[in-house]
Amino acid sequence: MYAAERHQLLAQRARRDGRVDVGDVAAELGVAPETIRRDLGVLERQGVVRRVYGGAVAVERLDFEPEVAQRDQTNAAEKDAIARAALDLVPDRGSILLDAGTTTSRLATLLPADRELTVITNSIPVASILATRPGITLHILGGRVRGTTLAAVEAWTLHALDGLLVDVAFLGANGFSAEHGCTTPDMAESAVKAAVVAAARKRVLLADHSKYGTDQLSRFARLAEIDVLVTDSGIDAGAVAELEEAGPEVVLA
């Protein structure tokens, strides 16, 4: 396959899937990973993709947020494993804050009925999961609900968070990296996530490996502000060392 043909294939793959993985494409085409990296460098200079750890993402997809149902199906097994690992960080009693996200929703389904927990959330799906759960005292934060993520945002949400101090906050993110911290495409949602970080004694980020290096528009926390990162074993060992050096304990599910 000629270089121009590879470039076209990589551009199409990035636009279709949102991301290109160097190792997967190199194996598929029977070329060295360095060849694919050079190809992605060409496409980056053309403004087609932005290179990230392990591959590249389509430029037009950087600020794109899939709907909840679509995100819930992406890396579902990894998200399930992360939620199970995060359960060990839930206190026997006390208060927790569950941020909006498909992985935090999975954690909500796993919360045991034999613990006395006060749960605060800005997520409609999380609230619906926990509304009738025994042992749970549920508080839902008000605000404008974003249709994309079903999360409450803006002034009402921020005002409520300003008066809180919870034991543990579990957060989601669209991207994370040692250099740029925890990021999300929407600034209103980013402001709420930052307020969640400020309202918690302990902060736990739940994010699967595909989000590593996929930095988004708005940062809501530096990694030094995160106590524990729970991700899956698909993340590279070198990335784990880099992330731990930036601050958080890294737990591999």
TrEMBL record:
Pfam families: DeoRC (PF00455), HTH_DeoR (PF08220). PANTHER family: GLYCEROL-3-PHOSPHATE REGULON REPRESSOR, HTH-TYPE TRANSCRIPTIONAL REGULATOR SRLR-RELATED. This is Lactose phosphotransferase system repressor. InterPro entries: Carb_Metab_HTH_regulators (IPR050313), DeoR-like_C (IPR014036), DeoR_HTH (IPR001034), NagB/RpiA_transferase-like (IPR037171), WH-like_DNA-bd_sf (IPR036388), WH_DNA-bd_sf (IPR036390). Residues 3-58 form the HTH deoR-type domain. Repressor of the lactose catabolism operon. Galactose-6-phosphate is the inducer. It comes from the Bacteria. GO terms for molecular function: DNA binding. Keywords: DNA-binding, Repressor, Transcription, Transcription regulation. It comes from Amycolatopsis melonis.
